[in-house]
Amino acid sequence: MEQYSITGMSCAACSTRVEKAVSKVPGVTSCSVSLLTNSMGVEGTASSKAIMEAVTKAGYGAALKKSSNATNSTSYDEMELEDKETPQLKRRLIWSVVFLVVLMYFSMGHTMWGWPLPSFFNENHVAMGLVQLLLTMIIMVIHRKFFINGWKGLVHRSPNMDTLVALGAGASFVYSLYALFAMTDAQVNGGSDAAMHWMHEFYFESAAMILTLITIGKTLEAYSKGKTTDALKGLMQLAPKTAVILRDGEEITVPIEQIQRGSQFVVRPGEAIPVDGVILEGHSAIDESALTGESIPVDKTEGDAISAATINCSGFIRCEATRVREDTTLSQIIRMVSDAAATKAPIARIANKVSGVFVPTIIAIAVVTIIVWLLVGQTVGYALARGISVLVISCPCALGLATPVAIMVGNGVGAKNGILFKTAVSLEETGKMQIVALDKTGTITVGAPKVTDLIPAVSISEAELLRFAFALEQKSEHPLAKAILQCAQERQVQTMEVTDFTALPGNGLTAMLEGKRLYGGNFTLISTKAEISPEMRSKAQELSASGKTPLFFSADGQLLGIIAVADVIKEESPEAIRQLQNMGIYVVMLTGDNQRTAQAVGQQAGVNQVIADVLPDGKESVIRQLHEQGKVIMVGDGINDAPALTRADTGIAIGAGTDVAIDAADVVLMNSRLTDVPAAIRLSRAVLRNIHENLFWAFIYNIVGIPLAAGLWIPLLGWSMSPMYGAAAMSLSSFCVVMNALRLNLFHLKRSSHDRMQRHPITAVTINQIQKSQEENQMEVILNVKDMMCSYCEATVQKAVEAFSQVDSAKADHESGTVAVKLNAAIDENLLKQAIIDKGYEVE
Fold first, then answer.
1. pTM above 0.90, yes or no
2. Which run of H or of E encompasses 746?
3. Which of the residues are catalytic?
């Protein structure tokens, strides 16, 4: 998406006009104009020159924003987001108020309340009229932008809010000018008393007051609009401007643009980390709150990744740059937030359609109002006042700002809490979801094996069991061995060296320790080396039933015990799922595990339903079928989740996942916490509710205000509105909309007490039908494989079989000793068997 800065826009009618003009350019596939940031995002093959010419012909200015290059990490920069409008409006407002006070003294202070004037003005009504004329002209010159932009809009047949203001103030001025000339004629022919009558026909103060009041509203609006981009500006300000790099052994401070990938840099306590990198030397606590919203520093040591703009809280660290400039995590966050601001939510379409015809319709209503009042016998001044009131009270700006301000503020709140919405569409749609499909591994679970149970035999303790297992497993590279090593290190078990170490493929390990022959592995292996009591067999079965892998250990024919290893559930997963269910969302877990293991994990997590034995390419198919039952969110973190993330109505990627998953998703959770899923939905619902409030205010304001200004209620209730009050109402309408959106900054997206239940259309019966159809749609071959002892052996066998193009997917089960192979074409089974044998397993 290319982004452009647009100048000359004053209301929603302007942004709609620009969108229409650019959308007609050949090669443009989509165009979105933001009145909030005065920017435009364009996708397609059209040249930037053609796009800018289209904007110019529409009566506005356009400039291509700086590209994402070595010196700029995003389509926005701090200079572009700097609030330049508010200072200008303040200056205009101050000067106009100064002259308006003098004007009001002459027009109302003296005329209505008898305030004194210099003797020169005694009975000199023409002189007083000339003073009012001059003061009004000065104020009109100060606010000449209204007239210039309004006239341009008429010339280009795209009238806007400035056109309404210019017509209202201009009509007041022209009629007052006519009254002044009539006064001079009356003064010549009838004297001072005759001229006095025309003093009441002056609307100079109305013209000046309209311009000043509108400017007050514009100033408040500009200030509050500036606050909506605070989150984005805050992110940009986090980026360090310099870095201390190591060059030929010396520390050199250089601008951040000069640091390259592979450069080594140092960060002292209290300093910000300049770019993404990895720690080569040292350890420290890193404050990552700027990126993730987490206030507690995270301990980092050699080999750990670090991100730009985070703060080194304690130790001195030497690092290597891995991602610089626009590739850093901070730059990607800024890009996501800014791109979301450049897109439009579907709900904005209604306001856009209304804005496109709003100004011409208001002008027509004002003309009809004047004509009707003249036909019923009212004076020209009276009828003109009603028409001017209609012009100045009408506000298309509120319609144009109703959606983008809420989107911008909502995105900022999400970014502060580590929740990134890529587009305005994803921010709006996430809260409408009815079904959440969660990938198991890495999403509900940690994604890496951990020791869950230590069950020693009667004769030894847990510490001894772990000590023997640690000694045996420390030379193994098997993932289950890593879990035991981690547990031993956490418990500070002392290392012991073994001899005669041998790996037994598909079964386990053996080695000598202190003259004893150690064995570790599955039940099949250890049952031949030691006697396993019925009680221990029963416990092993219970562990397997709960989704854990039991590892047996023996020494010199005596059973030492069982260590259970499993991919454990994240601590926050059950709470996150409970919150989703409290929102009325049906939660489904997708996994390639067998039904028994999947059910065990699903029961612990508390999901509504489990769909097991889902092969990698089957997730997308499941999401497609779930979509027939309602709007679906898919949450995942792996490469094989990318198709499902893309297929879902909203794809949510866990931040610690792969780049492919993050690219395919609509929402990214930087903290890798499942509780951020309900938080994202909660925030989306709050933003959508805020947009509804803004649109209601914008529409109801015009629906109520325009008839009142036109004098519709005068015959019935006597209610009327002067042009000055209309201008005051208009000046506050947009301000109220923006201030309402800013309330989102106070929203607590982690607070679940106000969650609203919504009925979901899906049932367990539907889920079972989906799973059944998955199984029926593919050819299947079952192979019997010996020696598989755990889920990681299963993965090895599956990978070997899936290397064939005729194989869609494979599912191995070490407990049953089978491999279910899904085929898309016929294949010789001997080829599959040989592939498995080559990996060290026996096939029957």
1. no
2. none
3. 439
